[in-house]
Amino acid sequence: MALFRRILSLGSRARIEDEIDAELREHMAMCVDDNVAQGMSREDAERDARRRFGNPRVMRERVSAEDASLGLVSLWQDVRSAARVFIKSPGFSLVVVATLALGIGANTAIFQLIDAVLLQSLPVKNPRELVQVRVVNSDEARGNRTTGYPAVTNPIWEKLREDHQGLSGIAAWRDTGFSRDSGGDSRFVDGLYVSGGFFDVLGVRPIAGRVFTAADDQPGCGLPGAVISYGFWQQEFGGRPALGQKLKLNDKSVEIIGVTPANFFGVAVGNDFKVAVPICSQPYLEAKNVLNASTQWWLSIIGRLDHASSVQQVAAHLGTISSSIFASTIRADYPSESIKDYLAMKLTAEPSAAGVSMLRTTYSNPLRFLLAIAGVVLLITCANLASLMLARTTARERDMAVRLAIGASRWRLIRLVLGESLLLSIAGALAGAALAQALSRGLLAYLKISLDFRLDWRLFAFLLAISFLTCLLFGLGAALRASRTPPGAVMKAGSHGMTASRGRLGFRGVLVASQVALSLVLLFSALLFTQSLRKLMTEDPGFQAKGVLITWLDFARLQIPIDRRAAFQRELLDRIRSTSGVDKAANTSIVPLGGAGWDNAVWIDGRDSPQRQDSNFSSISPDYFNTLRIPIVAGRDFNDHDSSQSPRVAIVNEAFARKLGLGANPIGARFWREATPSHPAQLNEIVGLVGDTKYHNLRRPAEPIAYLAIAQDSDTGTDMQVLVQSRLPLNTEEQAIRHTLQNVSSAISFQFDGLQDQIQGSLQAESLLATLSGFFGALAVLLTMTGLYGVMSYTVAERTTEIGIRMALGAQRASITALILRKAAWVLVVGLALGACISLAAASAAGSLLFGLKPRDPATLAAAALLLTAVTLLASVVPSMRAANVNPIDSLRSE
Amino acid sequence: MAKNDLQGALDLLILKTLSQLGSMHGYGILMHIRRVSDELLIVEEGSLYPALHRMEQNGWVRASWAMTDYGRKAKWYGLTRAGREQLASREKNWAQVVKGVDAVLRFA
Questions:
Q1: Eight-state DSSP code of residue A679
Q2: Which pLDDT score is estimated for A452?
Q3: Signal peptide span per the entry (chain B) (predicted)?
Q4: Rounded to the nearest 10 degrees, how much is the dihedral formed by the CA atoms of A133, A134, A136, A141?
Q5: Chain CA centroid to CA A468, Å
Q6: Average pLDDT over residues A306-327
């Protein structure tokens, strides 16, 4: 098996040469033997043999040259000779490798992110068996929903734990933050409340100690222990034994009982958990016990299918037991007028293999769009690569023809191109992989999320194959053509390539035109997203966020009795107000656009309660509207006379007045707020009307909001959110307030945030889309520019003689420039027309991601086309100038 | 006119030899051609081995190491199926060349 032997000896050229030597040596020996047999003396025989044999070294060279010409060994030599060629033309190789690196790198980075966010399953045992249980019509639920995940109340969870037919195990969890320190600037750790069976259901085994069992999760358990994540263990204990060590969580001491493996990040993709404690510890760690509340929707449910059941069966079973579960879990705290809705709710199950994810809901559409964009960039990369390779091999036709003329076989030439393509694509792919890692890291930092990112080898192989095939395909084109044309014809055709292709852009023109088309699509979408983001950023939320500092503070450690907390809060607020630099300050239960929400049903006094409407709420202190510069349209702000003893008052916004049909002057009207866990239905008198502001989300129009006086809240908590309007820079202001708070008590924990920053943070998906599509758009334009530049330079080089003749015959420089530019203009016009069609066809896909503008915005398309025209013309100006500077004499002499 | 230079003739001779002798080493091929042609055709080693190795690369012959009758280790070459096909087409081609050259020589 010659081939097999050669594969084995790949790279060990010496072995093959040894073998040839042996063969030739034996030949000599046989020759000598024959001579001796015919009666010659040994010396004569040897001399005769050597004479006939000739120079053994030359012979070996010739034999081994034949051998090398097809052996696999020589492929390596081809690569080496390709490397030599590239070192000689660094410009070309650099452009090809850079093109590949950008195309491959950008694609890999985006794909990795998408893979991690959208596709990757939980790092747990058989993730496909996992299901998530949730309430179908959860909008009907009344009360507090403090998580973005599908949630149920603890009483419902306890029922589910008793009856989970079709599931081999079921568990509940809730992500939360625990404060690590007791006072001052607080540090929070990402924590989890988990049911006893949580780790068991997920199949996560501890790498040290133990995880919770059902016995740990019993009512009144206190704080039986904490399970920490591998990351937290490394970070806090540097990998030293942590079992039995104490942690402080929300000022309570807890012992570490176990450590989870490194790849387990929790259930929610993107949120790394640090510390898990049992659900039964909640009343011990927090001021308010929510275990018995049927209005606290806070636990997410995950279950594992048993081998006999499907998700559909479990969902069907949950559907049938829903009514009994809801009937048995309703508590006296549930608003009576909403009980009917509560009883009508239904539970269902859905697959949850990839974990539940806020990231997924937030980023899924933007990421899909980005993936499509990255795919287009890959296409452009390939087109660019193709035209680069074409240009190169066309230029080398002569070289190839010469090789053919001196006896190289076609296959030899083809292999030469093969070696070059291999070298180029490997270099490009490696650079791309490195770039992808850097980009991925940058993306994660930009998104401020933690994800497990690894280079995806399947993807890498795919991209490598694509780039290799592109290089090869377009590299081969010219090699084949050269090998089919008689060498003489090529050499006669002169130094500027084949006569046949003179003056035409040919296939390369088609490639560049399609690059222009695709670039237009990318530029268009980049401009759409950037404009959309800009509109969102400049969208008036109805209040002034600039210069407003949010101070989160907690005084639970001071153990102030509930009846004195309101007074303490007022005192604290006054201290903050009197801090130097503070203009205005107000206390609020809801920071607008901060993600938190509170809604209740309301109805006008005297009307039937079935005519209820939904409204958002917020509890605020006096001066809130001043602090946020929200105009008071009519009536008054809250003041110190609004207290728990005085009649309940409310200030509403214009949207509220509109929605409840109160007309232009709602002052004096009274509305009911439905009963809540802590209060019976309440009647509020409207004392003020304020301008509309956004509540949940910048994208939504202003919604009805009713503001209640925080002083009239009877169950004042130990935490506050103070909005501070300051004329000083926020950092300076933070220092001042820190000082003030520490003067009051060192036991107060606090944390700062800029309101403006927080709002911008809520636009992360939009800004990711705008930034990355902008990046890709720029990349596409850059690639197209190099493509066009290459094509134009080639055309000029090819037509130097012709231009020389024209100039010798008296053509003006301007007309030569125009001659060349006309070519570029054609490519551009064809590309733009094609691109505009694709853009308009694809635009509707972007519709849902845009804010404040139509997906088929003609002005944006025109701007993109104009921008592209400008840069591509720029790319063709240099070659056309070069054409105009052709020296007629030189160009003719070189012919 | 088909490709039929001297190299082509050498290939033909080697292929034919191998088809007649079954399998042979380089020296044997050389001696066989010399003997059969009554010393009219003397193939040089310098042409023979490159040709053999080229034919091996083309897949016309297959090589393996074996002992000679005199107890020497030698590289033996044998025809492959592709080699046989090659031989057939070369023989046909050669016959035409001979006919053509002959016709030119006989022109009077």
A1: S
A2: 66
A3: none
A4: 150
A5: 27
A6: 91
Q: Is-contact A221 A282, C-beta < 8 A?
A: no
- Which residue has better confidence, A495 or A276? A276
Tell me which H or E stretch contains A375.
Answer: helix A358-395
A410 CB neighbour count, 10 Å cutoff: 14
Measured distance CA(A700)–CA(A704) in Å, rounded:
12
Interface residues of chain B, partner chain A, Cβ below 8 Å: 25-27, 31, 44-46, 49-51, 53-54, 56-58, 62-63, 68, 70, 72-75
Q: How far apart are CA A194 and CA A211, in angstroms?
A: 11
Find the closest chain A residue to B66 by CA distance. Answer: A23
Work out the average pLDDT over A292-302: 88
pLDDT digits (tens, 9 = 90+) for A329-375: 888 878 777 788 888 889 999 888 777 766 677 777 888 888 888 88
How far apart are the C-alpha atoms of B25 and A828, rounded to whole Å? 66
Residue A482 is predicted with a pLDDT of: 62
Tell me the average pLDDT across A85-98.
78
> What is the DSSP secondary structure assignment for residue A798, as one 8-state letter?
H
CA distance A589 to A710: 8
* Spatial separation of the C-alpha atoms in residues A860 and A522, rounded to whole Å: 12
Which DSSP letter does residue A412 get?
H
* Residue A158: both structure tokens together: 């306890």
Residue count of chain A: 895
What local confidence, expressed as pLDDT, does residue A288 receive? 79
Task: Count CB neighbours of A840 within 10 A.
Answer: 15
DSSP H/E element including A369 = helix A358-395
What secondary structure does DSSP assign to A470-535, as a single string?
A: HHHHHHHHHHHHHHHS-HHHHHHT-TT--GGGTT--HHHHHHHHHHHHHHHHHHHHHHHHHHHHHH
Cβ-count burial of A861 within 10 angstroms (0-12 exposed, 13-18 middle, 19+ buried)? buried
Say whether B46 and A2 touch across the interface (CB within 8 A).
no
| Residue A30 with chain B: CB contacts under 8 Å | 25, 27, 68, 70, 72, 74
Confidence of residue A256 (pLDDT cuts 50, 70, 90): very high
State mean pLDDT over A158-187.
84
Rounded distance between C-alpha atoms, residue A344 and residue A382, angstroms: 57
Q: What is the mean pLDDT of residues A269-274?
A: 78
Interface residue A24 vs chain B (CB under 8 A): yes
Q: What sign for the dihedral angle of Cα A827, A520, A794, A499?
A: negative
Q: Average pLDDT of A224-243?
A: 89
pLDDT at A764: 79
- Is residue A266 within 8 A of residue A194, CB to CB? The reply is no
How far is A645 from A629, CA to CA, in rounded Å?
29
Extract the tokens encoding A557: 């450690």
Q: Which of A182-191, A763-772, A865-874 has the highest mean pLDDT?
A: A865-874
Q: What number of helices (H) and strands (E) belong to chain A?
A: 28, 24
pLDDT (mean) for A844-853: 80
Contacts of A285 (CB under 8 A, 6+ apart): A178, A223, A249, A250, A252, A277
Q: At residue A857, what is the residue type?
A: D
* % of chain A at pLDDT higher than 70: 87
In the predicted model, is pLDDT for residue A27 greater than 70?
yes
Residue A585's SS3 state is strand
Nearest-by-Cβ selection for B54 from A27, A53, A66: A66
Contact A523, A864 (CB under 8 A): yes
pLDDT at A7: 47
- pLDDT given for residue B1 in this prediction: 38
